[in-house]
Amino acid sequence: MRFSSDRLAVVEGDITLMAVEAIVNAANESLLGGGGVDGAIHRVAGAQLLEACRKIGGCPTGEARITPGFNLPAKWVIHTVGPVWRGGGAGEAQLLQSCYRNSMALAAENRIKSLAFPAISCGVYGYPVDQAAHIAVQTVRESLAAFPAIESVKLVCFGKIIFDAYQTAYSQ
Ligand code: ADP
After folding, report:
1. What is the DSSP code (8-state) at residue 157?
2. pLDDT one-digit tens code per residue, 129-153
3. Averaged over 97-101, what is the pLDDT?
4. How far is the CA of 122 from the centre of ligand 1 (A)?
5. Distance CA 64, CA 7 (A)
6. Deepest in the core among 23, 50, 123, 132, taking most CB within 10 A?
7. Pocket flag, ligand 1, residue 83 (CB < 6 Å)
8. Percent of the chain at pLDDT above 70?
9. Domains plus CATH for the chain?
10. Quick check: 99 and 155 in contact, CB under 8 A?
11. For helices 129-146 and 92-109, what crossing angle results, to 10°?
12. Residue with CA closest to ligand 1 atom 18
């Protein structure tokens, strides 16, 4: 199932299978791999991805870094570090917006025309899914306006709970 406008689509699926130019990874500050979507991306990309991430040497929360995709269908991986949910008073919303904005800016800088995001911070980092979905949709819409060369963004939802939240955010 999918909901889409011209340039923004909400889809349910596994981001490691997406044939887009870049997939975004919800990484941690070490960039040295983890569980969830990070683990799935590293498994498919292969050991070279970990090596490339090691050379970068980490990434602060809210920022983004780029590597090749190695064995993934996607040519590039944009690694961004979402905030850990601490109740909402620790700048989480601004940091999550920064993840989407900085990932879009890095895609535009690298002339990437199609990319896919997972639900950053919605797994072990514990961000309330409804709020995160709203931020994802709004921030990507703003960034699509700011970066007209980006042709397509997929918001990839792993499972129905996430998909339903994104569908609601998309319709608002
Ligand atoms: P975070 O630490 O930022 O919370 P997680 O990887 O724990 O990151 O979760 C982020 C989101 O990614 C969750 O909604 C999780 O269900 C989802 N996810 C896990 N595996 C995949 C995958 N293969 N493709 C897309 N999304 C995934």
Report:
1. E
2. 999 999 999 999 999 999 999 999 9
3. 98
4. 7
5. 22
6. 23
7. no
8. 97
9. 2-171 (3.40.220.10)
10. no
11. 40
12. 37
Residues that are catalytic: 38
Q: Whose CA is nearest to atom 3 of ligand 1?
A: 121
Q: Is 61 in the pocket of ligand 1 (CB under 6 A)?
A: no
Contact 60, 43 (CB under 8 A): no
**Ligand 1 neighbourhood includes 125 CB (under 6 angstroms):** yes
**Ligand 1 centroid distance, CA of 27 (Å):** 10
Interatomic CA distance for residues 56 and 142, integer angstroms = 28
Please, are residues 83 and 125 in contact by the beta-carbon 8 Å criterion?
yes
pLDDT at 4: 59
The amino acid at residue 89 is G
Q: Residue of the nearest CA to atom 21 in ligand 1?
A: 37
Q: In whole numbers, what is the pLDDT of the chain averaged over residues?
A: 96
